[in-house]
Design brief:
alpha/beta; 11-stranded mixed beta sheet; two-stranded parallel sheet; 7 helices
Length: about 250
């Protein structure tokens, strides 16, 4: 791994519509991509979010879905944009529709659009429900993400969203210890992090790789995932809390 490698390149995220799914760092990852991209980008969501990217210094558009394309188009064409729909509670935003995200990306000429396309209620891992993830139309790259901190923890609602789905996908029961093998299965499964990805590019991320012990476990999980699926050829290990240098390792096939 070269220390010159950028997450923008490793995640195939310099252009197109990039959707982050899973748990344990979606918003942090998207903010890193948006703020390190050298061109004009957009950041948004297709799901409800309790935290929006208005702190990034981008132009901001909050409006009803039908009015969002015109609202974004009216902004300074030199600035990157964060946009969403109004939420039902203070500080809460609703997602734009999948079609609206594609339309805004196409009509407003963004180099890349970064989309939070899944909810996890601040947990470390999740498996998708029947109607998840909410991928944008025209999505070019899907980044499934989960937390290395889940490895070694018991499978409970305190750290996992949709526990019953994880039980079925990863092959363990509630209360049992989550292992690197389980995380690898979750990343590779078509009923887990690969759900609805079709023929899109996929580059998984294991986040919160905070120390050597977690890196060793994350490497094991990445190797399991690579052995179970041919949908991706690398898994990125990251510590997004280190905003200036989040890349830990790249595990390749």
């Amino acid at each position: 791994m070269s220390r010159n490698e950028s997450l923008l390149d490793l995640l195939d995220a310099r252009c197109g519509i990039v959707c982050a799914v899973g748990a344990g760092g979606k918003k942090s990852l998207l903010a890193h991509l948006a703020t390190t991209h050298p061109g004009r980008v957009a950041i948004t969501a297709t799901v409800f979010t309790t935290y929006f990217q208005e702190h990034l210094g981008f132009a901001v558009a909050i409006d009803e879905d039908a009015r969002l394309p015109a609202r974004v188009a009216s902004l300074d064409p030199a600035r990157s944009v964060a946009y969403a729909c109004p939420g039902d509670k203070p500080g809460r935003r609703a997602g734009a529709s999948a079609a609206t995200v594609e339309r805004i990306h196409r009509e407003c000429g963004f180099a890349a659009t970064y989309v939070k396309a899944d909810g996890a209620r601040m947990r470390m891992v999740k498996a998708p429900a029947d109607d998840e993830p909410a991928l944008a139309q025209g999505c070019t790259t899907v980044v499934p993400i989960l937390s290395a901190r889940a490895i070694g923890e018991p499978l409970t609602p305190a750290i996992a969203h949709r526990v019953e789905r994880i039980e079925r996908v990863a092959g363990l029961r509630q209360g049992e210890q989550i292992t690197a093998q389980h995380i690898g299965r979750l990343l590779a499964s078509q009923d887990g992090m690969m759900k609805a990805t079709g023929r899109m590019r996929v580059v998984p991320v294991i986040n919160m790789v905070d120390d050597g012990a977690r890196e060793a476990l994350a490497r094991q999980a990445a190797e399991v995932a690579l052995g179970l699926s041919d949908r991706f050829d690398r898994v990125i290990l990251a510590c997004l809390a280190r905003s200036d240098d989040p890349l830990v390792a790249v595990i390749r096939r």
